[in-house]
Amino acid sequence: MVFGDLRGWIEHLRKEGELHEVNAEVHWDCELGTVARKAFGEGDGPALLFNNITDYQKGRCTRLFTGGLSKYARVAMMLGLPKNASLTELVLATRKAYNGRVKPVLVKDGPVRENILKGDDINLYDFPIPKWHREDGGRYINTLAGIITNDLDTGRLNVGIYRGMIGKKNTIPTLIWPAQNWGGDFQKYADRGEEMPVACVYGWEPSLPFCAATPFPPDVSEYEVMGAIRGAPVELVKCETVPLMVPASAEMVIEGYISNDPKTFELEGAFGEFTGYFGGETALRHKIRVTAITHRNNPIFFGTLEGTLPKMLNENSIMSSVQRSALAWNILDRSGVPGVTDVHCPAVNNGTTLMIQIRQRYRGQAKQAAMAIWGTNASHQRYKHIWVVDEDIDIHDYASLDWAYAYRVNAAEGDILVVPGTFGNAIDPSTRLKDRDTLKFGTGKWARVLIDATVNMDFEPEEQYGGKRYPPTVHPHPEDWETVNRRWKEYGFKE
Ligand SMILES: Cc1cc2nc3c(=O)[nH]c(=O)nc-3n(C[C@H](O)[C@H](O)[C@H](O)COP(=O)(O)O)c2cc1C
Known about the structure:
alpha+beta; UbiD C-terminal domain-like; seven-stranded antiparallel sheet; 12 helices; 24% helix; binds flavin mononucleotide
């Protein structure tokens, strides 16, 4: 779907009854975050437009939009599917879009350049940036902004989502993990002793945050995948002070440079993270030295609440469960793992756990699947635990998984594989604090676990089981179901 910009997306949401405007005064200091938390609910709440934010009723920016993709129905709308599309349908459409490419086009000018601020005019406090939670280390300005960087060798423009908070009025301390694509881009600049240019894009069509939050291989520009999702090229303009390009109709862009000189570092963290815990404890980290802000007239600020807990879902949870499933399924396909029939990441863990359903053709297939996933950049911070089940197990139903776990998993038969010392998630508190030091180690440290809950193909086919490796289940035979269903009322039951 082409929405044109954030405003087009908001209008579409309004028409579809998916938008709630908050006109009562709401404070940026913890109140707005708590309203969003309650409204997002279990992934069934509306998108939110805050029109009356304390201290920002007048001035450069008076509105904030959040929660555009915090519900599956709205992910369906972005993909041009019916609102009641199933999760598997969303994953299949996303797989297709991820394999498509539509190159962006460069245009001369666009609304994002209606206002251009440089030098002393730059003041990040002019924007209604929430302190989302009390324990956040500051006011997090970069929560769902698409951060643009380029590959020095190829020129490829990367769009990623990487957290950052207001430091001074013109600095954004940030957290760079080397295993993320901007981390790779940054290393090339650092090796040359140069600062890396960045542009942070706030507010455009929903395909921007959706793609920016997806770990494509390093040579892929998210702009091309966004083009595939919307079915039309993204129109870009050149930035003012950095050699990068941004969507011409974005609400706002912050341009700047990041140095690798520890003398420039500023305090960053902690932040209420996707794990549901505060993570990335306060430490001196890299910062964006802001060189320009460009924005539309009456810009709408764009950000989101992180932190998923049971029965408390949000934009990242919902997006991740679609993105991370689609991406993993494409990786399995490309790696030649046969027989994959469904892939699912439950929303509550943002892709930390991956469920794969397969039709087994040969032994070792579950291990092949897990290894294919764990070898890719997509598994940084994600896919810690992989379950592989047979086709008769519904991976969207925890009871089915639990039953398979109970009777198709036997650690003595090698059904639980532990791969120690892999790259991990530096904000996962199940990793010791000392092992979560990003500047020292670059990433977290995980033992990854495969739970192979498929029928063990090392077992011999048994004659007494009709040539199968496992006994029959107690499911009644079709003819017995037929008799009982037909006579059900005769037995005195209502339905
Ligand atoms: C709301 C939200 C916040 C995120 N915050 C971060 C972050 O602070 N640091 C990070 O490396 N990844 C973060 N991610 C995940 C990355 O966006 C994701 O891994 C993406 O693939 C990064 O782009 P890249 O693969 O081009 O590096 C966040 C994702 C979302 C949806």
